[in-house]
Automatic annotation (TrEMBL):
GO terms for biological process: actin filament polymerization. CDD domains: beta-trefoil_FSCN-like (cd00257). It comes from Caenorhabditis japonica. GO terms for cellular component: actin cytoskeleton. It comes from the Eukaryota. This is Uncharacterized protein. One of its GO terms (molecular function) is actin filament binding. PANTHER family: HISACTOPHILIN-1-RELATED, IG-LIKE DOMAIN-CONTAINING PROTEIN-RELATED. InterPro entries: Actin-crosslinking, Hisactophilin. SUPFAM superfamilies: Actin-crosslinking proteins.
């Protein structure tokens, strides 16, 4: 039967595998600034950083604490990988076949039916394991969730407005759902309205085609 050290070693190897999968995600997105050498240096640093506190706790006999450290770190990396996978030049397509559209002259969004054009183009940016949705228009504007359930656009930087930050979730059917800071879900309704809902059902699921 494997001992505690073997268990920790296996978990760290799994973590390394997860990070290598992240590299594949970046390459698939064709990010021009991706640096392979730097990436692997960071992997090794992360693995060493995780090993030190885990080994220390094992030496003290704190097996539960060591397991908790591993679980938290794996959750952190999985979340970052998820936000990275959702990122890039994307469109947000609802289950109704419509696309979230950002208006240029007004601070509002709705759903557009038909072939997507420029106003349906978004930059989905990683934000510390979560994402922000930046419209294509200039000056920059971001998708915001309001406490009342409405959704609009604002020019505020995410540093100063947590309502711009969404937590991504990948559903079992390959779609994505996005949770706001208010505990509500980004929703594209059949009547063309973009809002936030308390429950995650079919209208709260999106595909993210590239543009």
């Amino acid at each position: 039967m494997p001992n505690n050290a073997d268990t920790v070693k296996s978990a760290l190897e799994a973590l390394l595998s997860d990070l290598q999968q992240t590299r594949k995600v970046f390459q698939k997105a064709q990010l021009s600034d991706f640096n392979t050498e730097s990436f692997y240096k960071n992997i090794e640093k992360i693995r060493c950083d995780y090993s030190r506190p885990t080994t220390s706790e094992l030496n003290k006999g704190n097996n539960d604490r060591a397991a908790t450290i591993i679980a938290k770190q794996k959750l952190l990396e999985s979340t970052k990988q998820l936000s990275g996978a959702a990122g890039g030049r994307r469109m947000l397509k609802s289950v109704h076949g419509t696309y979230i559209r950002a208006y240029d002259s007004e601070w509002k969004v709705d759903l557009m039916r038909g072939d997507p054009r420029e106003w349906e183009h978004w930059f989905v940016e990683d934000w510390g394991g979560k994402v922000v949705f930046k419209a294509i228009h200039s000056p920059g504007r971001f998708l915001r969730a309001l406490p009342c359930g409405k959704v609009d656009l604002v020019p505020t930087h995410p540093h100063f407005c947590p309502e711009l930050i969404w937590k991504p979730f990948r559903n079992s059917d390959g779609t994505w759902s996005f949770l706001s800071i208010h505990g509500t879900w980004l929703s594209g309704l059949g009547n063309g309205v973009v809002c936030c809902m308390l429950e995650c059902k079919s209208s709260e699921k999106f595909t993210l085609p590239w543009w």
